[in-house]
Specification:
It is a single chain. This protein is of the alpha/beta class and 570 residues long. The protein folds into 3 domains: 30 residues; 281 residues, Aldolase class I (TIM Barrel, Alpha-Beta Barrel), CATH 3.20.20; 223 residues, Class I glutamine amidotransferase (GATase) domain (Rossmann fold, 3-Layer(aba) Sandwich), CATH 3.40.50. Helices cover 32% and strands 24% of the residues. The protein has 23 helices and 27 strands. The strands form 5 sheets. An 8-stranded parallel β-barrel has the order 1-4-5-6-7-10-11-12, surrounded by 7 helices. A 7-stranded mixed beta sheet has the order 16-15-17-18-27-26-25. It has a 4-stranded mixed beta sheet with strand order 20-19-21-24, with helices on one face. Helix 3 packs parallel to helix 5, helix 5 runs parallel beside helix 18 and helix 9 packs parallel to helix 10. The longest helix has 14 residues. The protein is globular, with a radius of gyration of 23 Å.
Length: 570
């Protein structure tokens, strides 16, 4: 086994270190602990630009969000993290524009944060294509927003961002307003409370290390990740490949979000993942991911501030006025400047084939853009009569089961949806959309579903019940699809025939459906629990994962659905 481990690690395998290292190796090799660690590209936003500094100061312009996001997507990033650095300070609604741009060509999940203050803010960002939202200042000032949002959108959508500085007593204090204002809280205690309120994930950033490339604050990350049972993203200070390994080896972090190291091209994402793979850290390896020519030696030089900033026009930010933003947006009953006009007319053409059902709490934009990339004629459906004209339907969703059924009913969509299914047109449910197909759910009580497929939606076991290293709930990240043993529906005969065994796709959920074996096309395993990840009953298809966020594999799945003869889409 030692030939797979670095020379430095071999030298360390002596004395007390031997037992610990072997424990880590055995944990990583265990079937039940092979949870893929995520490498997240972090994009700090100021106006129309991506910026980077040291400890949130002396910001340089690094590029445009759309350009850098596509670059990191092509390099094989597992996720993107957008954080607007001045939204809360200046009350500028900038994230929506960036989210809509990202949904055009980026088919992996992304989380957005900065200036999020209300349920309406969260709703608008999720509608625009974001997978999750990160809240810092508003969560500290109004903790009830965490619990309220998690009950509406599901805990898996709500991320609490903690920016912490180390104190003289070796504890850490959270700051708000992008590291500008003290809170008087304790970071570990606040993380526990955020989880108790309903946060489904924690981002922990060391303000002391942020942008310095001096290494992640292992003590902070370890303390927070061991205090909570939800996934934790570590950020602030990664500057070398070893920093990623040390974080995953010594803490329970599920992911590392990195910025400077990528922006300055010290390392590419492929290089980071190849290193971790050699060190037996489970990561998602992306075939044909873009490799870059790395510059391992370049350091941050405050005397040469303009080296990067001069490439871009900082005055662009001043031109990005509130008036200009409001001219691009329309009021659709949520709030002024919440929904861009082009979102309302995603496909204005009269001849459309696939209807993507918008019931108010789902990420319609990402699904629509994924289908449009496949050259499909798509329409966002909000009125019941439009359901009757579609030749195929997609029901996407992010949120809680009860709220999803309530929204379908209030919008008058249930009866026409059931009518079209009975007529035999293909329908695809995604994540919450798939769960709504089942008989009932246990999420926040017992609630009736559409009953298109018999079964019940149940929660994952709590980390207190499952004594497996690295297990946390929600289940967030990339996981494999497996054809179940004795399956009655071989992959060669359904819409997922293009999949190869153990294809990797993106999940974000706390609940999953239990149903009859005959309806299960694929399963996935998490924390020793096998669950249905693809289901099918005649013309009703469902994926527990997000194909629109699963890269090229996800696009293939959507293409297979579009090719269904039953709906005349081939």
């Amino acid at each position: 086994m030692h030939h797979l481990i670095s020379l430095e690690r071999q030298l360390w395998l002596t004395g007390a270190g031997l037992a610990y290292e072997l424990f880590i190796v055995m944990q990583l090799l265990s079937k039940n602990t092979m949870k893929k660690k995520r490498i997240i590209a972090r994009l700090d936003i100021k106006g129309p630009n991506v910026v980077k500094g040291v400890q949130f100061e002396c910001l340089r312009v690094m590029g445009k969000p759309a350009q850098l996001a596509e670059e990191y997507y092509l390099q094989g990033a597992d996720e993107l993290l957008y954080l607007d650095t001045v939204a809360n300070l200046y009350r500028r609604d900038n994230l929506l524009t960036i989210v809509h741009q990202a949904s055009e060509n980026i088919f992996i999940p992304f989380t957005v944060g900065g200036g999020i203050r209300t349920i309406e803010d969260i709703k608008a960002l999720l509608l625009g294509g974001a997978e999750r939202v990160a809240i810092n200042t508003a969560a500290v000032q109004n903790p009830s927003i965490i619990s309220k949002a998690s009950r509406i959108f599901g805990s898996q959508c709500i991320v609490v961002s903690i920016e912490a500085k180390k104190k003289f007593d070796e504890t850490w204090e959270p700051y708000i307003d992008n590291g500008r204002q003290k809170t008087g809280l304790d970071a570990v205690t606040w993380a526990r409370r955020a989880e108790a309120l309903g946060a489904g994930e924690i981002i922990i950033t060391s303000v002391d290390r942020e942008g310095t490339k001096r290494g992640l604050d292992i003590g902070l990350i370890k303390a927070v990740s061991e205090a909570v049972s939800v996934p934790v993203i570590a950020a602030g200070g990664a500057g070398a490949l070893e920093d990623f390994f040390q974080c995953f080896k010594k803490t329970r972090a599920d992911a590392v979000a990195t910025a400077s190291l990528l922006h300055y091209k010290n390392y590419g994402i492929v290089e980071i993942k190849d290193y971790l793979h050699r060190e037996m850290i489970p990561v998602r390896l992306v075939p044909n991911a873009k490799r870059i020519e790395s510059n391992h030696g370049e350091e941050y030089n405050s005397d040469d501030y303009n080296k990067y900033t001069a490439k871009y026009n900082l005055d662009d930010y001043n031109k990005y006025t509130t008036k200009q933003i409001e001219e691009e947006y329309v009021d659709v009953g949520i709030r002024k400047s919440d929904i861009p006009e082009n979102y309302l007319n995603l496909s204005a053409a009269a001849d459309w084939e696939i209807g993507v059902i918008d019931y108010g709490i789902n990420n319609v934009k990402s699904v629509v853009k994924s289908l449009e990339k496949l050259n499909q004629k798509v329409k966002r459906i909000i009125h019941p009569e439009e359901l009757l004209k579609a030749r195929a339907l997609v029901l996407p969703g992010v949120g809680a089961f009860r709220e999803g059924m309530k929204a379908l009913e209030e919008n008058g969509l249930i009866y026409p949806l059931l009518k079209r299914v009975a007529e035999g047109i293909p329908i695809l449910g995604i994540c919450l959309g798939m769960q709504l197909f089942f008989t009932e759910s246990e999420e926040f009580g017992i609630h009736k579903g559409l009953n298109l497929i018999p079964g019940r939606v149940v929660p994952f076991k709590s980390p207190k019940e499952v004594k497996i290293a690295g297990y946390s709930v929600p289940h967030i990240g990339w996981n494999k699809l497996r054809q179940p043993a004795r399956s009655s529906a071989p992959w060669s005969k359904d819409i997922f025939s293009t999949l190869s065994p153990e294809s990797t796709v993106y999940f974000v959920h706390s609940y999953y459906p239990q149903t009859e074996r005959e309806y299960v096309i694929a399963t996935s395993a998490y924390g020793g629990q096998e669950f249905a990840s693809i289901v099918q009953k005649k013309n009703v298809f469902g994926t527990q994962f997000h194909p629109e966020k699963s890269g090229e594999i996800g696009l293939k799945i959507l293409q297979s659905f579009c090719n269904q003869q039953g709906g005349g889409l081939a």
